[in-house]
Structure formats: C-alpha cells, structure tokens
Amino acid sequence: MQAMWRRINQFFSTDIWTIDLSKCPRYKVVLIKALRLLYAIHREFSSGELTLPAMGLVYTTLLSLVPLLAVSFSVLKAFGVHNQIEPLLLNFLEPMGEKGLEITTNVINFVENIKVGVLGSVGLALLFYTVISLLHKIEHTFNAIWHETRPRSIGRRFSDYLSVVLIGPVLIFSGLGLTASMVSTAFVQKLIAIEPFGTAFYLAGQLVPYLLIIAAFTFVYLFVPNTKVKISAALFGGTVGGILWKTAGWAFALFAASSTNYDAIYSSFAIVILFMIWIYVSWLILLLGAQLSFYFQNPQFIRVGNKRPRLSVRITERLGLLIMRTIASNYYQGKNPQPIDGLAQALDVPSDFIAEIIEILKQHGLLIETNDDPPAYVPGRALDTILLADVIKALRRAHDDDIGVDPVHLSTPGVDQVVADLSEALLSTLSDRTLRELIDDKPST
How far apart are CA 117 and CA 115, in angstroms? Predict the structure, then answer.
C-alpha cells in the first residue's frame, strides 16, 4: 500500500509535469491538464491557501451582514422593492431548511429595526465603513489569489464599492422583476401552452438558477480583483464555482436535515453553527472558482502555485533589459505606455515578476510611473542618457540590503579582488552602451 501511494505521489509531483503534450493526442492533453489542475487545487487546500482566507471571511461576514443588508434595504426602499431582500436571503439559506427560514426572519427583523435616520452622521459613517471594510477584505483576498500587490486607490475603492452596494441591488431586482413580468404576459403564457415550447420553458426554468449563479460568480471574478481578468477565465471559474455551489447546497440540505444530534449537543447554538458552516462552504467555493480562473489565465502557475520561485541573477538581468527595451521602444515610437499587465502579456512572463523588477528600476530612477489607473511606465530620463550598465547595477544591488548578513563578514582580499574585476569588466563592456542603442538592436562596436 505504501509503495502504491509513493508511486501516485511521484506521478503527480514529477511524472505528470514531464510529459510532452505536443506529442499526445487531444483527449490525452485534456486529461493531463485536468489532472494537473486537480493537483494544483489539492495543493492549495492542503497548504491552507484557500481554507484560511475563507475562515477569515466568515468572521468578517458575520460582522458586516446586517450593516450590508441595512444599506441595501435603505436604497431598495426608495424604489419600493425592499421586500425582495427577504426572498433573496431565504434562497441563499435554502440548504439550511427550516433553520434557514428562522435565520432569515431574525436577520430581516434586525435590519428593519435599524433606524438609519436616527444614527446620526457618525453612526451612518460607521455603517458605511463596515460595509466598505467587508468589500476591501474580499478584494484583498482575491488580489492575493491573483498575485496582485496593488490594492485599489482610496478614490476607486469608495466609488467602486459604493456603486456595487447602492446600484447593484437596484439593477438585480429590476432585472428579476422585468423577467417575472415578461413571463406573466398573455403572449408568453399562450406560447407556453404550445408544445414543445412548454417543455422547453420548463427545462429553461430548471437551468435559470444555475445560470444566474454562474453569472453572479463570473461578475465577481471580473470585478473584484484589481487586475485585468479575461472573460473566458472568469466564465470558466464562474461555471465551475456556480455548479459546485448549487451541488453543495443540495448536499448541505441533506446534512442539515439529519443534524438532530447538533440540536441535542449545542441546543440553541446549533442554528448559529450551521449558519457559519454554510457561509464557510460558500466562501470556500467562491475562492476555489477564483483560483481556477487564475490558473486558467495563468497556466504557468499551476505547478508552482503561490510559492513563486525566485529569479536567478542571470534571468533577472535579462528580464530587466527586456522590460527597459519594451518600455523605451513604446516611448520612442509614440505608443501609449503599458501597465504591468500589458508588459506581462507582451513578454509572456507572469505579472508579479514584472512588478518586482519594475519596482527596482523605479527606485533607481530608470522608470517613472504615470498617473493612469492602473499606472503605466515610461523611461525615467532621455534614452541616450540611460546606460545599460546602470540597469545591470540596479538589478544586482536590488537585494543587497535584504540578505540579513553584514557585508564585512563576506569580505576577504581574494574575493574582493574577484568581485572588483567582475564589476570592472561589466563597466568596460557596457560603459558607452545606452538604452537608445538597445532599441535598434545594434551590436556593440
């Protein structure tokens, strides 16, 4: 048995990554990619990369649920559709059965008892702050999945978040109301009475809940991360996540129906525990879909996951020169400057590699960040004055202060002489070569 498990572990950790997909038939390529993806998801679960953030979001959700519903309730009340919140919340808690109905009733009572008008300016500000904090926590979690280190600016944070909280519910319930009114028209009712339109309408009605969940998941994966997500990647994660969520709801309903032992052990706390478990499962599935979207758009991370390998000095120098050449070429030709995502796509390199090197070049004044959102990059000074030797030295010195070792302890006469000779050789080779020359790809004279 142990030998079998060792063989399985070797297959997923080594063998599956050495297969040349170009020589495999199409069905085998699909199967191998699926196995690689399953291995990556198993790695994320076992390392806690998905479970720990989901736990944190459960806590944040419990604190922010009532304020979030209170803000949405106040907005929807102005449009006369505030009564639609209860069916939506009840649908979310449907897998909990009768306990879901009890939680929905209690939450709605809490929301209705909140008097926004008597909160005052401070209370109202705290109410919105709680809602914004929830959305910021969600964005931070999604940014971590997408290896995005730059959060939204404060201005964008308030504009984007408030638009979702204030306008989102109105659009959702308006769309649902419009759909319901269209179905109830006489023309549609007559059409349903004719076969096979009636059967097709019934089947479509069974699919609509899945399609709505998939659309909601897809929108979240497109909007929440502070990076450019392709529609195909978001749709892939949304489809898998939406189907998993509906399936998990069915399984959780069976679990909740047979959870009489929890009532005997935890008494009145059983309903709270089941509520927290369902929120945790929901967040876990949502984050799983986000991870799938990331891997779909960035398949080069499937093997390494979030533990990105460090670049060697040689690759760092090559990539740094490529970045400088690409930015300088766009600037020289009068093209729009590119953000990090654009550079990553142009060079076919993960964006966090690009971001790390660009930060080094910025600190040495070789690049300047524009005021665009997201920021783009242009040369820090005239192309004829940027020496290639300066670029190489900036990249080599980038982590000298982060090694945690006193350079004095690394100093010996022989080693110092070798390092000095290497630096002199570098300066003598690149002393008169500039970034302008690199654009033309002219060989050194």
Answer: 5
Q: What is the per-residue DSSP string for 366-432?
A: SEEE-SSSS-BEEESS-GGG-BHHHHHHHHHTTTGGGS-S-GGGG--HHHHHHHHHHHHHHHHHHTT
pTM: 0.71
Domain boundaries, the chain: 2-47, 51-301, 313-439
- pLDDT tens for each residue of 352-398: 788 888 988 998 889 998 888 778 899 988 888 888 888 888 888 77
Please count the CA atoms within 13 angstroms of the CA of 271 that sit on its side-chain side: 12
The strand pairing partners of 434, in sequence order, are 387
User: pLDDT tens-digit profile of 67-111?
Assistant: 777 766 666 665 555 566 667 677 777 777 677 777 777 777 766
Q: How far is CA 153 from CA 134, 139, 140, in A?
A: 16, 12, 12
CATH of domain 313-439: 1.10.10.10
Distance of alpha carbon 159 from the chain centroid = 19
